[in-house]
Structure formats: C-alpha cells, structure tokens
Design a protein that fits this description.
- This is Lipoprotein.
- This protein is mostly beta strands.
- It has a domain at 2-65.
- The protein is 2% helix and 42% strand.
- The strands form 15 sheets. A four-stranded antiparallel sheet has the order 15-14-13-44, with no helix packed on it. The chain has a four-stranded antiparallel sheet with strand order 16-17-18-19, with no helix packed on it. Strands 20-21-22-23 form a four-stranded antiparallel sheet, with no helix packed on it.
C-alpha cells in the first residue's frame, strides 16, 4: 500500500495521478490508469512497471521463457533450432551446420528459412516471422508469415480494439478504433469491424489494430450493422435498422493494404423485420428476424431464407415462422421467440431464441431455447436449454460436432447509473450435443446483488480459438476463457473454480465516468 501511495504521489507531482478514480475488479491491479493482471501481464509482471524481456512471458507473476523455449544459462532458447543448444542446453553444432528439430545437420529442409545457424518456419516462428529477425511484438503470434493477434475484442463503450494471444490468454495494448464498432469478423489476417456511428465497414491488419487500412460504406450512418459473415470472395452484412442484407466482394486493394471490398448487391428483407444474424447452408442464407415493437413484432419471430446462388443478385425466398413452437412460457404468460443468432452445421440450422416478453420490459418469460431447422423440409423443433442455467439465449456457434450457446440471462439494470446491470441470473454457456444440453458454465457464482466489491458479468458473443471459447461480457468488459471438451466446459480464465489459471481478462477497462464496460463482440483471426 505504501509503495503504491508513493508511486501515485510522485506521478501526481509530474503529470497527475493516472490511477486516481480507477476501480479494478478482484484480482486486478491499477497500473498507469489501466486494470491489469500482474500475474500474466508481461509489461507489469508481479508489479507495475516490471517488464519481461522479448524472449520471456509473465506466468504466475514471474518472467519466464516462452512456450517452446527453455532456460539455458541466462537466455531463453529454442533447443529445436539453436546451434549452441541443439536438442539440449550446451549441445553445440559444428561450424557450417544448422539445428533443425533438435538435430545438427548440414542444411534446412525445403520450406524452412535458414536464420543464422537455425532452420525455422517463417510461417509460424514469432522470432523470424516471414523473414529472419522479424520478431512479433507484445503478445502477437506469427500467422502465415505475418504478426497478428489470435483473438480480437471490440470495446463498444471505450471505442477500442484489444488483441489476445490464444493459449497464453495474454492481452495486447488497447487501440482506439472507430466510433461505434458493434460487430467483428476476420479474413486473411484482417479484422473487419462494422461501425454503426459512421456507417462503415472498417478494416485493420491483425497486428496493427489502431490503424484503419480500408473503409467501405454500409449505406447509411443511422443503421445498426448487427452481423458480418465472411464467405470468400464475399462479405455479407445485415442491418437491423434498415432491414437490409448487403453483399460486398473482394477485388484486391486499389489503395492501401486492405482487402479491397466493394458493394455488389443488396436486398431489403422487409419493413420492421429487424434482421439480426447470418448463417449459410448450401446456396441459402438463414437470417433471424427479430421484428419491431412498433409493428407488434408481426414481421419478426421468423427466419428469412435468401438465395445467394448469384451473390450479386440476392433474392429472398421465404420465411420460416417460429411462432408455432412450444416456448414453455412461465405460468402460461406471454412469450415470443424473438430470434437473435444462428449457426449452421452439416445437417441442420440452429437459431438462438431469446424467449422474451416484450410487453414486460423484455424480460425472459420462458427458458432459453434453440430452434432446430431441417433445411430439406423446413421443419422446426425446439430444444429446451433449461431455465435454471439459460435464460435469453443470445448467441450460438458450432464447435466441432457440438454447439455452444451463450445465454444473456435475466439482468436487472440501474437506469440512474448508466444502465449498469446490478444483478443477473442464468447467464453463461450451455453445451449441446446430439440436440441435448449436456453441460453448462455459469457466470457470477458467489457474485450476487449487493455483494461488496462485486460487479456482475453479462454474457454476450464469443469466438472460438484453439478449442476454447472467448466469451465477452457486456457489463464489466471482461473476456472469459472456457475450454470445450467432449461433453464438458472447463473454465480456464474466470473466477468460479480453483482450477482456473487466473481471473477473466479485463479486455475493456472500467472507467468511473462510464459505469458499464461493454465488450460487445469477439473474433478469432483466420
């Protein structure tokens, strides 16, 4: 406490205390005005300002060697490629030889780079990414010879993007980006970000999140681009305010270094339909229609099917109603499907139903439900996710032959305090296999309304990288990391189990001027 106070005092004399007024969630420390996890932050390892070297990472508050390297004397080396420590510390290759896969030999195998005395894969080596000596900065990985983050989170409230390295779950620096990004996707090493404020589809290189390399119009600035589907060479964007599906095509960059997209087609899905998401099955796009309160949701509660056999001329084929499903309303009360997300597997299309009563403050009035659509017949049936573990099913994605559903839950918001959620129940993840829920992961265990120092989390969208779900939190700006195993969900970064490797990632920092920190979307770079 004394050390932190003195640090703040000196900082105040010079520049004003950067940490003043910043409040961190449990397990995090304020460093330079930002909440960090000193147990895994390479720039603040164990204490603010303690920086690990380029060859080290921070693990359990101690700087140590990166994965795949080991300590030999005072250096971290890769014994698979180091000629002075080939296969083991102190094993030195002869003059002119190289070290490949821990063995001294006369030359490199085809496809590998010779960098000094080492044979390296320039497509994946973070110390020689694309070329000898090109070291990837901070926590970026080497992906196809380019440095980039593995996962990117959009902070809607803060107007930032932040990268994450998969596996180590370390955060990169936050970068200002756009004015109202609310949806993300990725393609060929670029992040695509739909900016609702400016009506633009922005692009950033996966390793330089603070620089816009291309922007493409989304038609109008008063829309709400809810979802982006990358389907090379096309990109599809739905707008829930303007009721449109927009088609962009990659033609290569004319200026700058972006993907070179241009709009080639558009279709209006109908007034008051409020399209929410996209999934492709065959030549059809399946688009959940939420509907609008002003029309009594008569044009919603359905799934539109759009023929994209010719993407330049998308054509709405029909709509599949969801109102005939047994939504299992509580006490027989009013409830509507109000579909919000969609994913496709090899045999079916699954739609997440929020199952709300829009006439009662949009509160859940039935369990979270998946609607399973048979594409060949259009038949729809409901999968009950269980009210005790899932209310307000908000996002669904296939992970192998299983489905992961993010449940928003039933949250109570404080309108007098920036609409911060003060309590929430049945929010988290549900794992579905063979159309049955088989496991769940609950947010906020032990963090109930009124618990001192406790800020609840509200599940949002997620991305999957290296077999783990990176789940965004729209209330406290966190990202939870949950591994997906056969029939199991195992917490890796969170706060509910002793086996967790650390707290949830504070991807979007809390700001005392904005009580809500909205991590709105996550994408895994491809």
């Amino acid at each position: 406490m004394l050390g932190a106070w003195l640090c703040c005092l000196f900082a105040l004399v010079l520049t004003g205390c950067p940490d003043e007024g910043v409040v961190c969630t449990a397990g995090l420390t304020v460093c330079g005005g930002t909440c960090v996890d000193t147990r895994g932050d390479s720039a603040n390892c164990g204490a603010c300002g303690t920086t690990c070297s380029a060859s080290e990472v921070c693990q359990d508050s101690v700087c140590g060697c990166r994965a795949g390297t080991q300590s030999c004397g005072d250096a971290c080396v890769d014994t698979a490629t180091d000629v002075a420590h080939c296969g083991a510390c102190g094993t030195t290759c002869s003059a002119g030889q190289v070290c490949e896969s821990g063995t001294c030999r006369e030359g490199c195998s085809q496809g590998l780079l010779r960098c000094g005395g080492a044979c390296v894969d320039g497509a994946t080596d973070p110390l020689n990414c694309g070329a000898c000596g090109n070291t990837c900065p901070d926590v970026q990985s080497c992906r196809s010879g380019r440095c980039a983050y593995d996962v990117v989170t959009a902070c809607f409230t803060n107007g930032q993007l932040v990268g994450i390295q998969a596996g180590t779950d370390q955060l990169g620096p936050r970068r200002e980006f756009g004015a109202g990004v609310q949806s993300l996707a990725s393609w060929d090493g670029f992040v695509l970000a739909a900016d609702m404020t400016n009506g633009k589809l922005l692009q950033a290189a996966g390793g330089n999140l603070g620089a816009v390399v291309e922007e493409d119009s989304l038609g109008v600035t008063s829309g709400s681009p809810n979802d982006i589907l990358v389907d090379p060479p096309y990109v599809y964007v739905v707008d829930s305010v303007n009721n449109t599906l927009q088609v962009l095509m990659r033609e290569g960059p004319v200026q700058g270094n972006g993907l070179g997209l241009r709009t080639v087609g558009q279709v209006n899905l109908g007034a008051n339909t409020s399209p929410q998401a996209l999934a492709r099955f065959g030549d059809l796009l399946y688009i959940p229609l939420f509907g609008t309160a002003s029309s009594g949701f008569r044009q919603g509660n359905a799934v539109a099917r759009v023929d994209i056999s010719n993407p330049l001329s998308p054509r709405k084929v029909d709509t599949i109603p969801l109102t005939g499903l047994d939504l299992k309303p509580f006490d027989g009360g009013t409830v509507m499907p109000l579909p919000y997300s969609v994913t496709a597997t090899r045999s079916a299309v699954y739609v997440a139903l929020t199952n709300l009563n829009p006439f009662r403050d949009y509160r859940p009035n039935g369990p979270g439900i998946l609607a399973r659509i048979d594409p060949s017949t259009g038949e729809v049936r409901a999968i009950d996710l269980g009210a005790e573990r899932c209310l307000n099913a908000g996002y669904v994605e296939a992970v192998g032959d299983q489905l992961v559903v993010a449940c928003i839950g039933e949250a109570i918001y404080d309108p007098a305090n920036g609409y911060i959620a003060t309590s929430v129940r049945a929010t988290g993840l549900v794992l579905v296999k063979d159309d049955l829920p088989v496991a769940s992961y609950a947010l906020n265990p032990g963090c109930e309304s009124g618990t001192p120092g406790c800020m609840v989390s509200v599940a949002s969208r997620f991305a999957v990288a290296q077999g783990a779900v990176y789940l965004a939190d729209t209330n406290a700006g966190r990202v939870f990391v949950v591994e997906v195993e056969e029939g199991r969900l195992v917490e890796r970064r969170g706060y509910s189990t002793p086996a967790a490797k650390g707290p949830a990632l504070q991807a979007c920092p809390l700001d005392p001027r904005r009580p809500v920190s909205n991590a709105i979307d996550v994408t895994a770079l491809r």
